[in-house]
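WARN  no MSA supplied for this record, continuing single-sequence
INFO  ligand: iron/sulfur cluster
INFO  echoing inputs
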Amino acid sequence: MIRNAAEFTFSWSLRRQEMWNCCRRKYFLHYYAARGGHDPDSGGELRRLHEMRSLLSERAYLHRLIAAELRRRFYRPHEEEDAELPDSEADPYGAVPGRLRREFRRMLRDEFRTDHAHPMLAALYYNSTPPGELLRELEKRLRNAMTAMSSGPLAMLARTRYLFRRPIDSPLEVAVGELRCFAAPILAFEEKGVLTIVEGSGADSTVLLHKFHAANKLHIPPERVRSLELIPGKGALRLAGKELNISRTLREIRGGAAEMLNAVRPDGTVREEDFPRNPAHCTLCRFRGHCR
Ligand code: SF4
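INFO  complex generated
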């Protein structure tokens, strides 16, 4: 399979870097081979590859549900303009269990096949776990995470005055010099002159992108930016970047991007054969249906 790299705008993200580090073939399939397969008329192999590209692990799906709920609660409109009301959500689990069951039914009805924007679990797609067992396990993990969250992050975020809550895009495009990068923040707030950004990653590169975003767009200096990593399973918000070395992290991001761009041949093509497989990661890989 051959693609023309000029048809793809390059950007760096932690997810992209992790995929590159995990399996080069997976990187090629995700970022080049499957592009365009969202169109229902694309058909054939391209459509199938895009189907696989869109699959979610249980962990990623639960994280997505929880992050969306957190964002919804944090930014939902208040009844009064400057309301300083406590979070009035009666049910600590909020809308999440209902959404899980609704989406799971849609997965079983295969609605994903016609629209890849609907979530789909790899375990269902590949029939690796019976649906009933899978749903029970997801509900259990979700309940545990939301219970842990309600006494920690949810309570803490609910106390954040509405006036201090700051809208933030997700995904968030961040310019690092000439390099386009992306982060995936969940929410942000600014108190006592410090901007706090919550994200599901506590990697140094994520912390650095938060600081670049704050400096580029909000003119907030790096020392007044704090990154918190959301760990839903533990119901915790952990301070990230305690040992951040800005120049080393910048070198790592730029070095990773340069390495990926070097995989483009001088004639401007990217070719599947140049991206070796890594069988160590096949068992749970979304693309295992393609590679077998
Ligand atoms: S199935 Fe294995 S070789 Fe293929 S993309 Fe996934 S990890 Fe790589």
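Residues 58-158 form one domain.
INFO  checksum written, moving to next record
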